[in-house]
């Protein structure tokens, strides 16, 4: 008893060293022979446990006394000491239990610790395992035989392992959380694993099998772990992979799209190349077409026109002439049309280039003026051109195209204007900008002819050159001019105004029928203006008039063009202009605009001009003036308005002025002006027709102011002056049977300074023209009684030939014949009918040409200049 | 002076009317211009000559047209031709035009 208590206490205290064991017990080896003694010593009988094993009872019903005493055996192994926990196993023969017996025997045989298979423990019936060690009386060598071991056995020490609590303790963390299910199995017998711990839940899912080694080589234990719950869906992984998948898909898509796009773009590029080639080919074809049409159409057209021109020179009756003239007009119109269309095509294809040559702007305007002056006079419309002093004399640019623009605009104005005026002004852009600020009130009656006009400022309102002040460089070489064409015509209807510059657009379908033209003019003008770096605009009020304005940029053509002071010396080769330098003129005109134009033209000749608006002022100026006026130019309107006053003025002129100035009338139309000319000797009133042009003005003035040189102011100021040069001092014979004709012709020739002799019969002529004579030329009428002009000429030629031959052969001395050995007096036929005098007939009989009766200056000049130089 | 002025004015008006109505044309104006200090009466002389000529020619024509036996149109034609020439030289446009018409009648041998 005491030993038991000591053992129990000891084991209790050292239980901490054996955390896994539930309890320890010691059993001693008792042979049968010692049983009685042993039992007496102990005070109990050795009991057996196998019956209890066979009929396991509940824990609470455990009663040690119910064990039967052990049957007789060879030896016994009763437990004598036990820890308190398992004190119930005291006196039980270990060899009686199946498991224990085997354990014990094996333990003593091997000398090592031996484990049982899991089996229900005695009291608790919990699954447990017993580890048994054999305790030997003495130390045995390691190579002791089993028998020796058996012999030396004293007792057996056993530890009980409650597997459940053991596993629980071990796996406290894991097991307690109940997330991992642990099964510990004794797998010594492979096919029949004995479960030591853990529920026998079916093992679905993953199972981790790991081997346990409790130290007993005989037994195998393994532990099976698995998760209690099915692993949750790995959301993160799923999401991530889905995300990656999506990204990959997107990337793939982008890639795919990019590749597609590249392919498509390359495709388009190829197509574009194709189209570009086609476009280039089309362009080339168009240029070729232009060149071909240019040449191919114009050549035959020129042929036609040339032939018509030659036809005009031949023998035609009046009807035929009329037809030819019509055909010519049509032909010329057709050529103009073709040129216009080709211009348009050239502009569209960008092939139009501007020239850069020096030209005189004023001369160009003069030309255009002369082009339209006839038509304007016919219509009774006053045509006026004004160029500002600040515009330089010479400019560098394309005069032809510039003329084209102005001609187009003026042509349009003339077409659509029946009354009033057409006023062309040329200024520098700077002038206009300056004047915009100082612009006085636009009085609608302060215009050239008194008719109201559309306000020209509206036409350039939108120009960019005016909105940007800084765009005009004061130091650059470029001259920016602005041209306005103002008319008092029909105007353009409001709804058509937006289409004005569209090619082929005309106001109405009837326009081309009534006025002609294709409607390209303005669009070509616009393109040309743009090429000249300018802008074009217009303002138009129906029934009042239109004003077209455009700007153009040129460069200055002469070094001194920048001077503000006017350089009015007109560099015409005509020496006439120098005659007028320094003279003074008085202009009487109530309209300031018109007076400005007149002043401009007169000043071009170097004449100083003063403007007054009525008779009274005129007289006061003349009487006041320190230096005399050489001439007075009066507007026709003023003259007509007040004939009394004008007569009065003329009278006073002579009284007041020191030297009587020559008086001129500035008149719009020729016929009415002629009617006003008085031929009384009191005053000399010459009419200068408008539109004023410097050259014509000079000629008129010179004629009037020169010495006795009153020329024919019709249209041949050049011919008349040159005729004078040609005929001055020449001795001329005129032959005509009609006294009147004779006198008129003689008078006409005399005015050119010729020395005229008259004859009225062919015979007379022959006599007079038989060499030697001093006649320089002869005008011979053809139709004469007795002997006509042809016959007379023939005879004259015969005699000339005769004498020439005789001189040649030395029969006659050349001295007697004024040292002329080749007599041929120029004989020109004078004819009233075109029919009679054909060129051939004249030539056949020896004549040198023909002129018409009565004399026409140009024709006369043409013929006479052939042999007078 | 006033009288002179008046006369001048009348003359101007009259010439204007003549021009307007087509009796005179540019040639007459040319004639007027030919008159200067050298030949101060030029126009008058020419006009006188013309009137003499006219008289002569018209008498001729009348005589020729009155011929009972048969009008010698050639002669008439010649006279008219002369008249035409003179009138165009002096600028008597209307007379000239009439002459032209006359001539065509002559060619047609139309006595009426």
TrEMBL record, chain A:
Modified residues (4-aspartylphosphate): 781
GO biological process: cellular response to oxygen-containing compound; cellular response to stress; regulation of meristem development; regulation of seed germination; regulation of shoot system development; response to osmotic stress; response to water deprivation
Gene3D superfamilies xrefs: 1.10.287.130, 3.40.50.2300, CHASE domain, Histidine kinase-like ATPase, C-terminal domain
Gene Ontology molecular function terms on file: cytokinin receptor activity; phosphorelay sensor kinase activity; protein histidine kinase binding
Reactions accelerated catalytically: ATP + protein L-histidine = ADP + protein N-phospho-L-histidine
Residues covered by the Response regulatory domain: 584-705, 731-868
UniProt-listed PROSITE patterns: CHASE (PS50839), HIS_KIN (PS50109), RESPONSE_REGULATORY (PS50110)
Entry keyword set: Kinase, Membrane, Phosphoprotein, Transferase, Transmembrane, Transmembrane helix
Pfam families: CHASE, HATPase_c, HisKA, Receiver_CRE1, Response_reg
Record flagged with keyword Hydrolase: no
Superkingdom, taxonomy of origin: Eukaryota
Name of the protein in its database record: histidine kinase
From TrEMBL, chain B:
GO molecular function, one term: histidine phosphotransfer kinase activity
Protein location: Cytoplasm, Cytosol; Nucleus
Chain positions with Phosphohistidine modification: 81
GO CC term, one of those recorded: nucleus
A biological process from GO: cytokinin-activated signaling pathway
Keywords associated with the record: Acetylation, Cytokinin signaling pathway, Cytoplasm, Nucleus, Phosphoprotein, Two-component regulatory system
Main localization (coarse): cytoplasm
Name this protein carries in UniProt: Histidine-containing phosphotransfer protein
